[in-house]
Amino acid sequence: MKVKLLQIALITFVTGGLCFVQAQQSTIKEDFKPSTVNQPGQEYPMVNSQGYARFKIIAPAADSVRVSLGLGGRGGTKLSKAADGSWMGTTDGPMDEGFHYYNVNIDGGKFNDPGTLNFYGSVRWESGIEIPAHDQDFYALKNVPHGQVQQVLFPSPSTGTSRRAFVYTPPGYEKGKDKYPVLYLQHGWGEDETAWSNQGHANLIMDNLIADGKIKPFLIVMTYGMTNEVKFGKIREFSIVPFQTVLVDELIPYIDANFRTLATKDKRAMAGLSMGGMETKQITLNKPEVFSYYGLLSGGLYTPADIKDKSKVKHIFLSCGSKERPEGVQKAGEELKAAGINVTTYISEGTAHEFQTWRRSLYQMAPLLFK
Amino acid sequence: MKVKLLQIALITFVTGGLCFVQAQQSTIKEDFKPSTVNQPGQEYPMVNSQGYARFKIIAPAADSVRVSLGLGGRGGTKLSKAADGSWMGTTDGPMDEGFHYYNVNIDGGKFNDPGTLNFYGSVRWESGIEIPAHDQDFYALKNVPHGQVQQVLFPSPSTGTSRRAFVYTPPGYEKGKDKYPVLYLQHGWGEDETAWSNQGHANLIMDNLIADGKIKPFLIVMTYGMTNEVKFGKIREFSIVPFQTVLVDELIPYIDANFRTLATKDKRAMAGLSMGGMETKQITLNKPEVFSYYGLLSGGLYTPADIKDKSKVKHIFLSCGSKERPEGVQKAGEELKAAGINVTTYISEGTAHEFQTWRRSLYQMAPLLFK
After folding, report:
1. I want to staple B346 with a disulfide (CB 3.0 to 4.6 A). Which of A271, A293, B263, B319 is the partner?
2. How many CB pairs under 8 A join A and B?
3. Is residue B221, in this structure, part of any structural domain at all?
4. Is A253 found in the same domain as A190?
5. ipTM rounded to 2 decimals
6. For residue A45, is the peptide bond before it cis, meaning its omega torsion is within 30 degrees of 0?
7. Residues of A whose CB is below 8 A from B107
8. What share of residues in chain A are helix, strand, coil (percent, to 5)?
9. What is the pLDDT of residues B54-108, one digit of tens each?
């Protein structure tokens, strides 16, 4: 049974990738601005209002400079040497809204664009670029009360080390006395515990939802899902046991001992994106006494047969991008609903297996939790 | 007066740089191990027990690959093409103990080593390498209770945005009721609010000091000192006013409102490294009613004439590396002592204007604060 579920998850998270929007636009508007995730003071890479990205790399004596973004992954964008000795190039189409990882190939070696901040993905710190999205307001840094993202180092006897987690606490947590529910939120393969804050803006999404009165505050805990212990092609060989032990036997007790949590099953959720969804599915099914809310974001599906005791599941959230396999999410939602399970599905319009899908998914999922 | 002080500070922080230990060793021991700040799973760069660093860069079609570390900054280390098409090279001498920034020049362009984590320095995210130090235990991740490093976003009307700070809270803070003193701790030019945690391990230094019973716990607040608004050569033109406003009028009230602090002058310290020391000096002298403990780490000196009212200063800490200008620190210490001011000086043996000096300085300074 577990093998079959793994296959479903695998299919879901290899069909994504960097996709271009379909309609090619005939003229490129010259309204390029620096990407918002550039390093301080860096002009390039730039993006225009249509979603084209333009790169500039200084490497005067190089023979070949190529950026991995572009053409749906088939070779990316080849840069050309400009008069000043720099290398420049523009994607041959507008890119999907939101965040994209990329890297720069200089004479056969993979490097980062010195212009951008780095984000952990593909088991390396990668360059990132942000294509302005029509709905970017929900994850924008706004003048509202802000929660905090805390780094904690928790003891992990099972792995023989102190492990890192990040904990989002909502505005007012520090000086208040309230206890809060907790969402355990996992990243995908190749990423780590920094992804949901850095790429996902989970903290800003929460701040904005709370400021708008759309959710009751809760904590989010993000730790490394030990996903990268297997190579991407070997995800089938992944064993959930070591991470399940860290999460359930070590991290959750640490959080409940050190934060003001509502430490009951009814006030605990787990969700994850991509391979983090696969982990969420396995752990929530293995440990139905621990979590009441489950979320798979581009990360597999539950079937009615998976749910042994409907009364233990308060709500299931399933989502993916419209450029992934939305029909799978919709069908799973219908089947779960028909079986009397409380489920919500969400399809992120115009996005693929990327963080814009998951930012939107968190925004949609958060108001459903801990009702 | 202010101009003269600036000059002293400037001299102090341009005399540093990456230095080799004097004694050249005749044979290179082949006991190289991956640097501890490599990206997960990356073998290179490596360091040996003598302090040599060895680099490996993949760029098969490049004509020239050079690493900025080596020969005291005069050209760094030129890598040679190996049989497998990679570029390899070893520094021509052992490097100072501790952390060093570096970058890789590929055919005339400045990139990061894909093998290492990135650290913000020189106004860019740079590669970093860690040379094992004989005293590294004091900043090691050990099996002791760990405090937390929290990211806060505080409102800053004077700059029209939310600004980021990191706050170290000691073990037990979350569930406790105690109030704590606060150290405001500044980075140097080219760095930002991430430096003291990432490069400095300030949190681990505190955890270890607390576990050993050597200090009473306090909070550390680290924010961006707006140092990089001026180019390195133009530091003389830097105005302290914008940052002083952010720190004193915005950040301190926010911290006192949102954390359990002892919000009095006697329980507040400010210290900084390099240009952060210059800022510390100016702000502590401009605002004697705000701070009682002052620390300049390779960041200028106080003279007795600077201190208008001795009764307002509980303790001054001055430090630098033995490869900087230790005689200046020692002389300033003697003059302040002779003038009846409570002062401690510290010289970090065998280190230059780099983070090992400042890690050690924090370790020496922390027990002196808030007595």
Report:
1. B319
2. 141
3. yes
4. yes
5. 0.84
6. yes
7. 59-63, 106-107
8. 30, 30, 45
9. 999 999 999 999 999 986 556 799 999 988 889 999 999 999 999 999 999 999 9
